[in-house]
Design the sequence.
């Protein structure tokens, strides 16, 4: 049976996602969560239906000219040839999974294109991270944590969004499985770790570096740089 997703974005965040006011990197984490979460798929469809009917009411007075301009702009878009379409389909199929630590992970559709262009994997103990080419406001990366591995206790200088893509992580506040979205702010301190028998792949979106609470001072800076 599929893992039941327990940790969802709040209603305000979903509304901002649907109306397009979120920054691209945060929207990416939301889009990937929604890909995995039937509950939030329904909610965001409802929100966008509401938004749509509001927009229709606001636009009722606009002239037909606007529509014909828009239609001709759409019609003028170049059509993809059959060859291009099948090339697109092939590259989509090739992008659906990534291999880390000899394990293949299938990625949500929203992440596939970016993940295909991920940076080099950097490893530290049982943890590996690869930067994704996202916007400049946030640090966006894939984070792989081998089984039985702990990320040192840390707090956050900004927003930390972690979407579990596969496997499980546990911290002081709960246990998170595929599709669960953890949102941590500077008020939260936690020590995420994997279970003894299962590794984990996450999407991580950070607006500022992590701040490590324990360990030797000389280790803190390299750790901060590793995660950001
Ligand atoms: Zn959800």
Sequence:
């Amino acid at each position: 049976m599929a893992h039941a997703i327990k940790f969802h974005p709040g209603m305000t965040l979903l509304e901002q996602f649907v109306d397009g006011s979120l920054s691209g990197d945060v929207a990416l984490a939301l889009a990937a969560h929604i890909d995995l979460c039937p509950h939030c798929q329904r909610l965001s469809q409802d929100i966008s239906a509401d938004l749509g009917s509001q927009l229709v009411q606001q636009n009722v007075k606009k002239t037909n000219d606007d529509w014909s301009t828009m239609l001709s702009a759409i019609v003028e878009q170049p059509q993809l040839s059959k060859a291009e379409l099948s090339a697109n389909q092939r590259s989509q199929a090739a992008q659906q999974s990534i291999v880390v630590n000899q394990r293949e992970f299938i990625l949500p559709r929203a992440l596939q294109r970016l993940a295909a262009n991920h940076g080099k994997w950097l490893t530290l103990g049982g943890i590996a991270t690869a930067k994704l080419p996202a916007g400049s406001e946030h640090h966006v990366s894939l984070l792989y944590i081998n089984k039985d591995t702990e990320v040192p206790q840390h707090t956050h200088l900004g927003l930390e969004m972690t979407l579990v893509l596969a496997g499980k992580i546990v911290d002081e506040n709960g246990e998170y499985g595929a599709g669960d979205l953890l949102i941590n702010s500077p008020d939260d301190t936690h020590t995420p770790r994997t279970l003894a028998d299962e590794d984990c792949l996450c999407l991580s979106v950070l607006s500022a570096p992590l701040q490590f609470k324990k360990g030797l001072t000389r280790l803190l800076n390299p750790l901060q740089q590793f995660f950001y």
The longest strand covers residues 160-167. Residues 5, 8, 33, 37, 39-40 surround zinc ion (CB under 6 Å). The chain has a mean pLDDT of 84. The two ends are 35 Å apart (CA to CA).
